[in-house]
Amino acid sequence: MNEGRVAVLLPLPLAGPYAYGLPAAVNLMPGAFVRVPLGKRIETGVVWSSAGVDKIDAARLRPVLATLDVSPLPEIVMRFVDWVAAYTLAPPGAVLKMAMSVPTAVEKPPPLSPLCYRCVQDRMPERLTPARRRVLVAAIQTPGQRATDLARAAGTSPAVVRSLVESGLLEAIPLPSSVPVRPDPDHARPLLSPVQGAAAAELVAAVQADRFSVTLLEGVTGSGKTEVYFEAVAEALRRDRQVLVLLPEIVLTAQWLERFAARFGLPPALWHSNMTQAARREVWRAVAHGEAQVVVGARSALFLPYPALGLIVVDEEHEPAFKQEDGVIYQGRDMAVVRGRLGDHAVILASATPSLETQFNVAAKRYGRVRVTARHGVATLPAIAAIDMRRMPPERGAWGRSWLAPPLVHAIQETLAAGEQVMVFLNRRGYAPLTVCRLCGFRFRCPHCTAWLVEHRHSGLLRCHHCGHGVDPPRACPHCGGGGPFAVCGPGVERIAEEVADRFPTARLAVMTSDTLEGPTAAAALVGQMETGALDMLVGTQMMAKGHHFPRLTLVGVVDADLGLAGGDLRAAERTFQLLSQVAGRAGRAERPGRVLVQTYDPAHPVMAALLSGDAEAFYERESMQRQESGMPPFGRLAALIVSGLDAAEVENVAADLARHGPHGVGIAVLGPVPAPLALLRDRHRHRLLLKTSRGIPVQPLLRAWLGKVTWPRSVRVQVDVDPYSFL
Ligand code: ADP
Ligand code: ZN
Q1: Ligand 1 atom closest to Cα of 223?
Q2: Can you tell me the mean pLDDT for 459-477?
C-alpha cells in the first residue's frame, strides 16, 4: 500500500475503488470501514486492495475522515465481492452494496442494550385481562424474554407488555447480550436409518476434511435430507465454524426453523429481505462478530460478512428462485460454490430433482454425490396417475365451467371422507388470466407491459403480474364502450378455489399464494393449520408446493400439468418436471400412503411419462442429450444482453449497433437482436441479444471487449445476464 494513501471501495455503481489520503502514522488494514467525502456527500466505504487505483497527485487527494468501530470486512468477503463483480460484469461497488446491505449496522454505534422482562412476583394477581395473564405466564415460564418475544408467546402486542411494566407487575432488566447463545450440536441427535447414516457420514467427512468440496445430497421427497445435512451442520458447529443454509422461499423457513430448534436446542439467525431494518442490523453485526453461528436465509445471505464460515448448504438447489434477476444479476447456487472455493470449505447442494447443471458437474467428478433413495420410516412414495383431459373432460357444474375432471373430484371426495387432507395445485395466481369484451373481443392489457391483466377477486383488481399495475374492474369496454359483464378466460388458483368450495361446501379450505397471504407470518399460520388438521384442503401455487411436510396430506391434484411447457424456454421441461415432482412429493409423507392425480392434455409428453413412471434418470438423459446437441448449458455457455429504454427507436438502434460489433470466431455466436417476449416492461421497450459460446470459451472477456466498442445514450440501459435463466 502506498504511504499516505488508501483505496476505498464505495457501495455505489462506480468503476472501481477511489484513492484517499491518510494522515502520516495512520495505517488502515484492508477491510476497514471508513467515512470518506464523495462530491458534496460523505459516504461509508471499505478499504480495498489498491490495484487499479489511478495515481492521483498526493496533494489533491481528499482525506479519509474517520474509521468506524466495527469488525473489518473479512478478506474472503472482499475477494468474493471482486469475484462476483468480475463474473457478472457488475460494478464492484454494486456487489459491495449487497455486503453492506444494512448501512446502519456499520455507521451508527450499537444501541443501548435491549431490555428483557421478568415478573415482579411469582403469584398472579387475581383480576387480569386474558392477554395480560398470558404475558405474565410467559414471563414466569421463561424469564428474560424481550417485549416482542413475550408478546408473540402470549399472542398479543408489545403494548400489553409495556402496560404491565407501568402497573409494576413486570420489570425491565438489561438483556445479557455478551453471552452468545450457541446451537448445541448434540442437543437431540436423531436416530438415522442406515442409508441416512451413510449419507450423513460422507457429508460429515467433507466438513472434517476442511477444504473445498461440493457434494450433491440427492434424495427423494420425504427421505429426510434435512436430518441428513443437519449432521454436517453439527460437525461444523463442533469445529467452531459458521454455517449458512440457503432456502429458496421464505415461506419454507417456519417449519425449517422448528426442526432446527428441535435438533440444536435453539433457532438459528434468520436473513431475508422482509425483515425489519432493526432485525437485519442485529443479524449483520452478530454474523460479523462471529456470534451468529448458523444463518438460514435467502440468497442475499451469501453476502453477509462471515469471519469463520465453514459450511454452506443450498437446499432445493434446483430452484430458479436462487437466481437474482435485478440489480446484480447472479445465480445464488453457483455463487455459493464460489464462496465455498474462496473460503476453502464444504458446500452441500440438496435436492430431490437436481438441476442438469449440478448433474453435469457430478458426472464430470467435480462434485461428489450421496443418495438417499427411500422415504423415511414407513412412508412410501405416492402413486402418480394421469388424467387424460381429452378423454375425461370436466363436467359443467351448477356454477358454470368446471376445471376439475371427474376422477379428481371423486378422489377429493374419498380423501375428505377418510378424514385426510387434499392439496390442489395450479401454478397461476389470480382468478382468471384474461378478461375479454364480449362485444368487440377487446382484451384487457397492461398499459405499461406486454402482458394481459389478470383478474384477482381477492383484491378486487385487474393486475399486471410484471409491473404490479392494478385497475378496478372496468364498467365499460375502453374500445367499443360496451358494458360488461366481460368474459373471463381460463382459471387461476382463486377460480379453482371457488369451484372446490362450491363442490365441497363443508371442507375447511384455504388458498395459498403470494397474493392471498400477507407475508411469511400468514404463510406460517396456514402451514400450522395444515399440520394440526384445522384445514382439510389447500389450493395454491408453487408457493405451497415446496418443502412442507404435512403428515395428513394424502391427495395431491394438479389442475394443469402442461402449463409450464408452453413457450420455448430452454429449461421449460426440466423445470416442469422438478416442480411437479415437488408438488407430488407432498403426498403421503407419513403412515398413510399418498396419491397424485395429474390433469394433462398430453400424457405421453416426456415430462408426464417420467413423472408417471418415476424414471427420472431417463428423462434427464434425454434432456441432457438435447442440450448437448444444441450446445446449450451446461454443455455451452450463454450470456444475454437486455437493451431497454423509453424510446423504442433508440433502443432498436443500440441493439442493432451491439449486433454489428458482436464477437465472432469459432465456437462463438451472437443471436438477435430480437424484441424480447416482454417487449414492453414498465414502459421500457426491450430488445435482447444472446451470446452463445462453447464451454471452453469464457464469456466475460468477450462481453467486456464487446461492450467497450459500443456507446449508448444514458437514456438506454444495457443489462448483462451471465448464465440467463429467464428469457423474457
Ligand atoms: P426431504 O427434505 O428429503 O423431503 P425431510 O427432511 O422433510 O425430507 O424429512 C421428512 C420427514 O421425515 C420429516 O418430518 C423428518 O423430520 C422425518 N425424518 C426423516 N428422517 C428422520 C429420522 N432419522 N428420524 C426421525 N424423523 C425423521
Ligand atoms: Zn405491467
Answers
A1: 3
A2: 90
383-388/595-600 β-pairing = parallel
- Ligand 1 atom, smallest distance to 226 CA: 6
Q: Is 222 in the pocket of ligand 1 (CB under 6 A)?
A: yes
Buried b (16+ CB within 10 A) or exposed e, 407-422: bbbebbeebbeeebbb
Residue of 530, 549, 589 to mutate, ligand 1, most atoms within 8 A of C-beta: 549
- DSSP string across 661-710: T---BTTEEEEEEEEEEEEEETTEEEEEEEEEEETTS-HHHHHHHHHHH-
Does the structural domain 194-372 have CATH classification 3.40.50.300? yes
Positive or negative, the Cα torsion across 568, 574, 580, 582? negative
Tell me which CATH homologous superfamily contains domain 378-428+495-630: P-loop containing nucleotide triphosphate hydrolases (3.40.50.300)
Q: Is the pTM of this model over 0.85?
A: yes
Of 186, 199, 203, 177, residue with least CA distance to 310: 203
| Fold (CATH) for 5-100 | GIY-YIG endonuclease (3.40.1440)
The mean predicted confidence, pLDDT, of the chain is 90
Coil/strand/helix, residue 115: strand
Q: Above pLDDT 90, what percent of the chain?
A: 68
Its CATH architecture, for the domain 636-722, is 2-Layer Sandwich (3.30)
Ligand 1 contact via 588 beta carbon (within 6 Å): no
- Of 707, 698, 639, 641, nearest to 667 by C-alpha is 698
Whole-angstrom Cα distance, residue 467 to residue 470? 9
> Phi and psi of 252, rounded to 5°?
-75, -15
Tens of pLDDT, residues 530-588: 999 999 999 999 888 877 889 999 999 999 999 999 877 899 999 999 999 999 999 98
Give, for ligand 1, the residue of 227, 373, 527 to mutate: max count of ligand atoms closer than 8 Å to Cβ.
227
Is the CB–ligand 1 distance for residue 223 below 6 Å? yes
Q: Is 528 in the pocket of ligand 1 (CB under 6 A)?
A: no
